[in-house]
């Protein structure tokens, strides 16, 4: 508390003595504090405990003369504290507004800012007038903030579609801005104990997408490390070549998706499937299609979910269930592979796995044990392997292959050993294991391939649709072939794809 003492001998001069015995001149304030009348000459009421302050008689340590002591009340202390806090907040707001003003355009330099913005995003200023005409109405800074705020509050995303014109064609930002996909469900209620997924709906493409998150939590990693076989009943009712009543799948991933709740007895798969059908029917209608994707652990769950979804008529009546898994491990044995190929042949499933060539995760579990049909673990679907971005001008050539039924135990064994984890771990640079598994590395390699590939080259396969690739698979009877000539890109002797006039097609 602030304590001031008034010396009676110097009361006429208005000198104030503090507790240290020092005299301070307070001619203007002391009589006002001591005065018992206001400016009109009326008596002021007695001050209470919570009034701005009061004077009490006291003694100082320097003498025995009684002196008047001014004590700050609790209310006054609160007022001072609030005032100081308000000053701090106002100062922070002022600094923030100044920073925003420096970043955002004002009425005076709107044209200049627009010119600089279009030069950055469109690489040249030649199309500025055309872009400006396409943008339609222009907004000031205040109007733009109001448009965005009202669109967010009203959940009217269509009002923000014009923002896509500010990004380069083909960029991720432009694709996101142009996309009509809207997230309708995110399951993160128990992020430390449960798998995390999200559902989005694109009414323009008539697509419902399920996205699984990769391994982050301890539970995720425990699930990933449960790399043993689990035998489950074959859910396919149709008869097909090599059908087995028991499928051998990755134990951890299967349990993560199909363990039953104690209260309802339902599984996570049931929950996701019902939500997909609900949002697809409500937002799009009965003619929606299902697309599934994920990375690492999410890629493994993508394999598992899309396989069982391909047997649900709700998801296959309008076309096959389509899935792209990134950097997913092995998911099952040969019986699992036979079942997936049957779903592909019957046009109920289309599955692609994309990975980096030196990524160790798609090579786990260890695949050394040899069975009657070769190594026990087996990949399924179309595989896309991306080589490392070259630094010294080497040729960059991705590999697109399909894991079909093996021709013999020897071929299956050689195929499995070539893709064994022992030969794909960067032993000389072990610190790169984590980087080669990340999505950022996958994206860098895809972008490099797109920018540096020649017309009609190997990267042309990655620009094909899933329907086009599976048409080629059907033509080749879903055989295990990985040569680029199998996709019709290289010359083949006696090939029927030869052009008229003797020119050969590449």
Question: How would you sum up this structure, described in words?
Answer:
With 506 residues, this protein is α+β, with helices and mostly antiparallel strands. It folds into three domains: 3-37 and 50-72, no CATH class; 104-162, no CATH class; 179-487, Alpha/Beta hydrolase fold, catalytic domain (Rossmann fold, 3-Layer(aba) Sandwich), CATH 3.40.50.1820. Helix content is 35%, strand content 17%. The protein is built from 16 helices and 17 strands. It has helices spanning 29-34, 74-103, 110-122, 128-135, 141-154, 172-178, 218-225, 251-258, 268-283, 297-309, 313-316, 334-345, 409-418, 433-437, 439-452, 466-475; strands at residues 3-6, 15-18, 23-25, 53-59, 66-72, 181-187, 197-202, 207-212, 229-233, 246-250, 289-295, 321-326, 349-356, 370-371, 374-375, 382-386, 399-402. It has an eight-stranded mixed beta sheet with strand order 6-7-8-11-12-13-16-17, with helices on both faces. Strand 2 (15-18) and strand 3 (23-25) form a beta hairpin. It starts with a strand and ends in a 31-residue tail after the last helix. The model is unreliable at 1-55, 120-128 and 489-506 (pLDDT under 50).
